[in-house]
């Protein structure tokens, strides 16, 4: 996305919630008291405890945030917010008209003079204009409350969009904002462990005026990153599965074997606990052909613990 037009940010979700957002064309706004960090709005302390209680209460009741990430490659974000890599990450195009804020990460708590806010209150809401220094100072104080977080949270690479909560955005106890020209889905990144059928994803994104790209995620083979599986979603859907098969062995006895089957090729691998054994065979059953009874006959019976 062209920076002059805005930026792309990301929302990690369990798969069912991501599908719901896409189908309903809206996304949840988080309230401060429901966020993961118990120190939300308490990253700084105000010199006047009454002022702090008032501001925290007002923010909890009337303000919310859309909490997004700047990238989707961090495996910790998939683990913590993407249902342990079983979920979906939505890529959202945010227009330049939207005010995007970044948290400020600090090592220690600090106290701030509450007189900044009291000076604005003394002027009165009717007499205060956005251009007034008192208004601007009070606004900076509020943003400092909303954005100050302990440095351990910096791994989230977070960006926030604040919004005043309205009753017409409410469904049950939650608040939602509809997708529009300012916030719209442009990517669906499917988690490396996500088992959702491709048809359900395609159905959820059908009908959008602008194309939504679907990306299959995978774990990088040579770094601690989540990357795109260039083979695509269809290939990933048909990825290797594990199954237990039984085949006659010597004396008419049966034994179990662990089989990894690559569905696209129809080729599988018989795995045994002995590292020397790895027999390739065709997944005949999946192709509607008879699986030969003597397939594993040349192998000794499995030890008792493997049966």
Any idea what the shape is? elongated
The biggest beta sheet is recorded as: 5 strands, mixed
Q: In whole angstroms, how far apart are the ends?
A: 55 Å
Q: Into which percentage range does the β-strand content fall?
A: 25-35%
Count of helices?
A: 7
The pLDDT mean sits at: 81
Pick out the low-confidence regions. 240-307
How many structural domains can be distinguished in the coordinates?
A: 2
Q: What structural category characterises the helix and strand content?
A: alpha+beta
The radius of gyration computed from the alpha-carbon positions, rounded to a whole number of angstroms, is 27 Å
Cross-sheet strand order for the largest sheet: 1-5-12-13-14
Helical percentage: 10-25%
H/E series: EHEEHEHEEEHHEEEEEHEEHEEEE
Give me the count of strands.
Answer: 18
Would you give an account of this structure?
There is one protein chain. With 307 residues, the chain is an alpha+beta fold. It folds into two domains: 7-228, no CATH class; 241-306, no CATH class. The protein is built from seven helices and 18 strands. The protein has a five-stranded mixed β-sheet with strand order 1-5-12-13-14. A hairpin with a 2-residue loop joins strand 10 (170-171) and strand 11 (174-178). The longest helix has 15 residues, at 133-147.
Concise account of the structure shown:
The protein has 307 residues and is α+β, with helices and mostly antiparallel strands. It has 7 helices and 18 strands.
């Amino acid at each position: 996305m062209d920076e002059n037009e805005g930026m792309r940010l990301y929302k990690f979700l369990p798969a069912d919630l991501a599908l719901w957002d896409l189908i309903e064309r809206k996304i949840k706004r988080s309230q401060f008291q429901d966020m993961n960090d118990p120190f939300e709005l308490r990253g700084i302390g105000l010199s006047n405890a009454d002022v702090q209680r008032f501001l925290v209460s007002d923010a909890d009741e009337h303000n919310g945030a859309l909490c997004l990430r700047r990238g989707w490659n961090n495996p910790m974000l998939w683990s913590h917010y993407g249902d342990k890599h079983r979920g979906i990450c939505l890529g959202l195009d945010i227009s330049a008209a939207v005010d995007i804020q970044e948290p400020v990460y600090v090592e220690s708590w600090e106290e701030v003079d509450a007189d900044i806010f009291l000076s604005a209150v003394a002027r009165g809401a009717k007499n205060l204009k956005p251009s007034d220094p008192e208004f601007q100072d009070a606004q900076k104080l509020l943003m400092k409350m909303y954005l100050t977080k302990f440095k351990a949270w910096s791994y989230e690479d977070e960006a926030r969009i604040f919004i005043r909560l309205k009753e017409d955005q409410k469904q049950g106890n939650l608040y939602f904002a509809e997708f529009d020209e300012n916030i719209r889905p442009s990517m669906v990144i499917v988690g490396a462990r996500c088992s959702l059928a491709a048809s359900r994803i395609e159905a959820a994104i059908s009908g959008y005026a602008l194309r939504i790209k679907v990306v299959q995620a995978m774990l990088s083979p040579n770094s601690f990153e989540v990357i795109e599986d260039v083979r695509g979603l269809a290939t990933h859907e048909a990825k290797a599965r594990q199954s237990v098969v039984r085949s006659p062995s010597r004396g008419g006895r049966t034994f179990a074997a662990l089989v990894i089957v690559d569905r696209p090729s129809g080729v599988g691998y018989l795995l045994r606990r002995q590292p020397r054994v790895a027999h390739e065979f065709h997944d005949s059953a999946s192709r509607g052909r008879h699986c030969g009874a003597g397939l594993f006959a040349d192998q000794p019976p499995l030890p008792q613990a493997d049966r």
